[in-house]
């Protein structure tokens, strides 16, 4: 009772499977493209947020920190730093950031040190706005713990 697969049957399986996989790929791509605007928080992007992102890149913050899981794991994840240090109060968070950035590097023994970047108050506010904006991106509950 052994049934043999003919060349014609194999060709039909190949083309049918390929077509099915292509249709699944197109459907998933279409779904993803439609979900991105709802999840990206791009409607709240301001000039200050863009300036903060530029500071983030120019000062190579990703060289030590992670943001939405991307970057180095030398220093804490900063996607949720607004919730951790600002208690969802933008004014309190900006004040925290002003103090934190001005106090670097801390002289704590046996601890990693963040360099002093000599940012102006306006630059720290822009960086704060970028981190606040980032905290509102839907990243599927990343990071998994509140302390990054």
From the structure above, extract its key features.
electron transfer activity; Cyt_c-like_dom_sf; 5 helices; 148 residues; mainly alpha
What would you note in describing this structure?
This protein has 148 residues and is mainly alpha-helical. The chain has helices spanning 7-40, 47-58, 81-86, 90-102, 121-135; strands at 66-67, 70-71. Strands 1-2 form a two-stranded antiparallel ribbon. Helix 2 (47-58) packs across helix 5 (121-135) and helix 4 packs across helix 5. One of its GO terms (molecular function) is heme binding.
Tell me briefly what this model is.
The chain has 148 residues and is mainly alpha-helical. The protein is 54% helix and 3% strand. The protein starts with 6 loop residues before the first helix and ends in a 13-residue tail after the last helix.
Q: Can you summarize the main beta sheet? A: 2 strands, antiparallel
Could you give me the name of the CATH homologous superfamily of the largest domain?
Answer: Cytochrome c-like domain
Helix content: 40-55%
Beta-strand percent range = under 5%
- Secondary-structure element series: HHEEHHH
The average pLDDT is 91
Layout of SSEs?
Blueprint: H1 7-40, H2 47-58, E1 66-67, E2 70-71, H3 81-86, H4 90-102, H5 121-135
Antiparallel strand pairs: 1-2
């Amino acid at each position: 009772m052994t049934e043999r697969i003919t060349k014609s049957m194999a060709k039909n399986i190949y083309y049918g499977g390929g077509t099915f996989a292509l249709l699944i790929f197109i459907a998933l791509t279409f779904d993803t493209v439609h979900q991105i605007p709802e999840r990206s928080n791009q409607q709240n992007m301001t000039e200050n947020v863009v300036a903060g992102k530029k500071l983030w890149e120019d000062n190579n913050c990703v060289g030590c920190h992670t943001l939405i899981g991307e970057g180095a794991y030398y220093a804490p994840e900063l996607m949720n730093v607004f919730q951790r240090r600002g208690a969802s109060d933008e004014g309190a968070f900006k004040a925290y950031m002003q103090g934190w950035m001005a106090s670097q590097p801390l002289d704590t023994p046996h601890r990693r040190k963040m360099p002093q970047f000599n940012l102006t108050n306006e630059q720290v506010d822009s960086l704060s706005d970028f981190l606040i904006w980032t905290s509102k991106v839907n990243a599927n509950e990343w990071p998994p713990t509140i302390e990054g």
